Amino acid sequence: xxxxxxxxxxxxxxxxxxxxxxxxxxxxxxxxxxxxxxxxxxxxxxxxxxxxxxxxxxxxxxxxxxxxxxxxxxxxxxxxxxxxxxxxxxxxxxxxxxxxxxxxxxxxxxxxxxxxxxxxxxxxxxxxxxxxxxxxxxxxxxxxxxxxxxxxxxxxxxxxxxxxxxxxxxxxxxxxxxxxxxxxxxxxxxxxxxxxxxxxxxxxxxxxxxxxxxxxxxxxxxxxxxxxxxxxxxxxxxxxxxxxxxxxxx
Length: 250
Hints:
This protein has helices at about 45-65, 100-105, 135-140, 145-170, 215-220, 225-245; strands at about 5-10, 15-20, 25-30, 30-35, 40, 70-75, 80, 85, 90-95, 110-120, 130, 170-180, 190, 200-205. A hairpin with a 4-residue loop joins β2 and β3 (about 25-30). The radius of gyration is 18 Å and the shape is globular. It contains six helices and 14 strands. By secondary structure, the chain is of the alpha+beta class. α1 packs parallel to α6.
């Protein structure tokens, strides 16, 4: 598969056309950003790790009956994905109170929620990705009621699967954000990425009760180096994938 012209560059990835109009080439970058891009730093090896982690998670989800746009990992920092029309929407699932949820609602971080909370945020950097509800999305033409009737249950299925996956490797899934899109035939697919950039992951192998972050909060809050944490997540996921018969890159 040949990589052609660049179509898009975001904070963490670059997107290229290929010689197949239905397949795109994704290149993961080493940059980390926080605060709508106000804080930015490059970390050697981050792009490789996020490419590996996303591939592993998407493969593990596929084993659990949840399809994504992933076609194949094709290099240390690159993967091929199906071309989808993305909803300009961040879909957030929260299992434990943390981050924006706490500051917005005055809740103490770490409190277990009585049930998972599904939230939507409009992807708009100028407006700082505002929180929106179903009516907002329909009124603005971002998606239809029929779209939401597919998006919401798929997001909850993904949450249940990810909780189980991370629990198997001693990690608590606090919250995460995902994106979805439709293929040319209208199929709704999980897209973009699932990495420690887009999840809050707390290590559970230390029984002391102290929160040990394995995610981008290390960078956001100046708590330490993200690379050893990302390496730990990748190593545990790879071990789980091997145990489930998934081919893992060495």
